[in-house]
Design goal:
alpha/beta; 11-stranded mixed beta sheet; 6-stranded parallel beta sheet; 12 helices; 39 strands
């Protein structure tokens, strides 16, 4: 069993893994250049890929081309050329203008880093969005604000992982939902607040693992029920009377404490899967033969994959992908029908045969070590060759990389354009400054400017209960609020205040980053543990640590309990 060269943990490499590496290995001049077995364990590989993705840390800086002020995921002082959306997609430049010859006297990654810092980067990665400038890694959004990793949603704010949803606020991974607030891992829910792992529910509050329910409050593990409070049935009249009383007298924190007493008495499934055949991991839906993977929808024949949306197959070590990736390896932030791509970042829309590329898009194919290309083929370091020249030179470069030990490795951490503490990796693999630097990642001590406001108030100066939203004046839009937990200042935007008033919600007492962190903390870690079913006592694998207080059942016992 090999040991990870970073964390020294032993990890398994199976014969099926070796077959996969062989199947995606490129062929040039009739010779196959086999991708070697990974030197890092699955967690360290995932951590490294995530360090190349900044989703939620936004800065204000000037576009390097038009000089206009813009929002960007790149720090103002970062040594990168950064264009606004209009300039990057405009006709005033071409990635081919930066083409260079490969130097066989220098390491591949050193040369690639130099090219990457010269070619313009996209300030924000938004595609086909309308009035949603303050978003990132998104497609098809309309009238959204601070939404990331989301697609085809409208009028939503401060959320991550929205798909085909509208009028949602402070949500995480919700699909086809409407008028939802503080919901996590929910599908097809309507007019509901504080739900987790719920499906097809409406007009409900503070529920966990409920399906087909309506008018339920503080409930867990229910199926197709109406008018329940803390898992006890009530009449419609009693429901309305009691809910009004609870919402008037108790804060969300008070209700959560009472709700916790209920959900700790209700069994939970060891894993969250739906229509998942021969799968291991958690949060897998409509998938087949997906192993050691998490948050995958519509996947087949995958391993070590995370945050995949649909129609993805025959790939390993893929992170945060849109629809349609196949026969690819060690890839992040890419999608929309990409095929046979290895070691790529932010490549999308019908690309294929890419190796070690970034921001190569729109039907590009057979490119090596290139950055910022559109509709290009047979490019090496942004320089176009004939098909024969490309194959010959690509083969020579891979031999060079084999000698330097670079072939088959993802980009090293020092090449990430983002500091570790601003990257997705910090959310799933949190490190201190010293720990990050010791592992070779970058770190930033950037200080954000305080918002320009007429007044700063603390959270305690605002009404705590929903009924007091009417007391909040319009002038709050000109104030800054102090986060109750972190002390960070944050503002309320007009659409947000309208949402709170419309849904009779109090203004939040926490900064949006702290609210996001709390939603993340509700989810189990992406790790499987051996445990015992709380009923039949058989050995199970679960994302619940064995010493946690929840009652966890195997699939058979759980289904008998809830149906």
């Amino acid at each position: 069993m090999p040991k990870c060269k970073q964390c020294n943990t032993g990890f398994e490499i199976t014969d099926d893994d070796r077959k996969f590496y062989d199947s995606v290995s490129p062929i040039f001049g009739g010779k196959k250049f086999t991708i070697p077995e990974p030197a890092l364990c699955p967690d360290c590989r995932q951590q490294l890929r995530q360090s190349f993705r900044n989703e939620r840390t936004f800065y204000r800086r000037d576009c390097s081309k038009c000089k206009k002020s813009m929002i960007s995921v790149y720090e103002p002082g970062a040594d990168f050329v950064v264009y606004c959306h209009d300039c990057w997609w405009g006709d005033g430049w071409s990635g081919l203008d930066f083409g260079v010859d490969f130097d066989f006297n220098r390491p591949f990654f050193e040369q690639w880093d130099r090219l990457n810092r010269r070619v313009p980067q996209l300030g924000l990665l938004i595609n086909r969005c309308e009035n949603s400038d303050y978003c990132n890694q998104t497609t098809g959004l309309k009238n959204c604000y601070l939404c990331v990793n989301s697609s085809f949603s409208e009028d939503s704010y401060y959320s991550k992982g929205l798909s085909y949803s509208r009028d949602c606020m402070d949500c995480f991974k919700v699909y086809q939902c409407e008028l939802c607030y503080e919901c996590v891992d929910c599908h097809n829910c309507y007019n509901s607040k504080y739900l987790q792992n719920c499906k097809n529910c409406r007009d409900s509050f503070f529920c966990l693992d409920c399906q087909g329910c309506s008018y339920c409050f503080g409930c867990a593990g229910l199926r197709n029920k109406q008018y329940y409070i803390y898992n006890k049935p009530v009449s419609p009249e009693e429901y309305e009377k009691n809910i009004k009383k609870i919402l008037v007298t108790d804060s969300p924190e008070d209700i959560q404490k009472e709700f916790q007493k209920v959900n700790l008495l209700v069994p939970r499934p060891a894993l969250t899967m739906l229509n998942a055949e021969n799968c291991t991991g958690d949060c897998l839906y409509d998938s087949k033969n997906v192993q050691d993977s998490y948050d995958v929808v519509g996947g087949e024949n995958l391993r070590f994959c995370y945050d995949l949306r649909a129609k993805d197959d025959n790939s390993y070590d893929i992170t945060a992908i849109g629809d349609g990736i196949s026969f690819s390896y060690e890839t992040i932030s890419s999608g929309i029908n990409i095929h046979n791509c290895c070691f790529v970042n932010n490549c999308w829309d019908g690309v294929s045969g890419l190796l070690y590329c970034h921001l190569v898009v729109h039907g590009s194919a057979d490119c090596l070590g290139s950055v910022g290309l559109r509709h290009s083929r047979y490019a090496i370091f942004n320089k176009i060759y004939s098909k024969e020249e490309y194959g010959h030179l690509a083969g020579k470069i891979i031999v060079h990389m084999q000698k330097t030990g670079e072939w088959g490795q993802f980009f090293p951490p020092k090449l990430s354009p983002f500091p570790y503490n601003a990257s997705l990796a910090q959310e799933y693999y949190p490190l201190t400054r010293n720990e990050a630097l010791k592992k070779g990642f970058c770190w930033s001590d950037y200080q954000f400017a305080s918002p320009k406001v007429t007044k700063v108030i603390t959270a305690d100066q605002m009404p705590r209960l929903s009924r007091n939203i009417e007391e909040i004046p319009d002038d709050i839009l000109n104030w800054a609020l102090t986060c109750k937990k972190t002390g960070k200042l944050y503002k309320i935007i007009p659409q947000e205040l309208e949402f709170y008033r419309k849904n009779h919600l109090s203004v939040p007492h926490y900064h949006q980053d702290e609210r996001h962190r709390r939603r993340m903390s509700l989810r189990n870690p992406r790790k499987l543990y051996k445990s015992k079913c709380g009923k039949c006592q058989k050995i199970i694998k679960t994302t619940y640590l064995p010493d946690r207080p929840e009652i966890v059942y195997c699939e058979a016992c759980y289904l008998k309990e809830v149906y």
